[in-house]
Amino acid sequence: MTAGHVDHGKTTLISALTGIMTDSHSEEVKRGITIKLGYADMTIRKNAEGYTNEGEGEVVRKVSFLDAPGHETLMATVVAASSIVDGALFVIAANETCPQPQTLEHLLVLESIGVKNIVFVQTKLDLVTKDQAIKNYKEILTLLKGTPYEKSPVIPISAVTKANLDKLFEAIQENIPTPKRDETTAAQFLIARSFDVNKPGTKPAKILGGVLGGSVVCGVFKEGDEIELLPGYPQEKKDKRIYVPIRTKITSMNADGKIKEARPGGLVGIATGLDPALASGDLLVGNIAGKPGTLPPVLTELNLKMKPLKRALANFPETFVENEPVVIGSGTATTIGFVEGKSKGNRQAYHIRLKKPVCAAQGAVMAILRKASNRWNLYGTGTLI
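The structure assignment produced for this chain is given below.
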């Protein structure tokens, strides 16, 4: 994934690497910032001159990118993106003092969620002098000193002129390895996007089912598999909102081309037999897909053992007040919760009532945001007990 302060060049970098502008939604284009998760794929090749993303050469790796927003009010989306990635390109613009507010916030998010492999990318070299670039580079090194990322590479580039991109490809290859995945357990797919791909005016006979975008985290999905989505879709029943599990079939899959099987790693588009209206506008984001009867339980209440960030101890009260609202990031789901007090079975944990349910197994680590100075700030993580 990409991370970093708003307007530091994350989307422009992804465009230079993949040829795809990920901020294609109308509101994003109008405002000039990424609001939703965007994603794109790239093939890294190696030839006699080094690593490249175009031309001839041996294919060494295919990489999927999630472009996460940098704006502070969209931090929950960053948390959601962090749950399905193996590493990050952390973008820091050379034409601004480092660190900027969301530079620190994103770094804390990645550390708290457990993203260990990061390549730092110093962007916008085409906008600064050599002396300015060196000064900013030293600021980046100072920022990283004493953090888990102190020895991570910092690669200066220009996404506009594509200068030094070969060194960035090399850094990705050497510092963000493809992890070993478990393909033997029950398959799970975290849904980060959902779409209606039909154009207005499509004839009923030619309407395609809803499409799910996200990542397989374990197991294997095959074309034709029956799948279940949890927590499901909200319905109003007797003045109460309930969530109904969704069942459908995989009609086709795409990962930089048609595939018959989807395995862990990378981003996958899964076409289904769902009514496309159910999937339109990211309505299914936060659901988990799997074989019926194999997914974790759907929870409306959580008992979380909190682990605050060191910085959070200075910014927040030591304890939560009764009915304090918090934002919970679980997988690709984000929901509001209300702290009801200490858990009865474990006084080190808090009992939280959720506004919207999540699908999660015991031991799951969730991001916790608390409100301070009228905005949501990352507090730390909570482990489900």
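Interim note for the steering committee: Residues 22-36, 70-74 have pLDDT under 50 and may be disordered. The longest strand covers residues 240-254.
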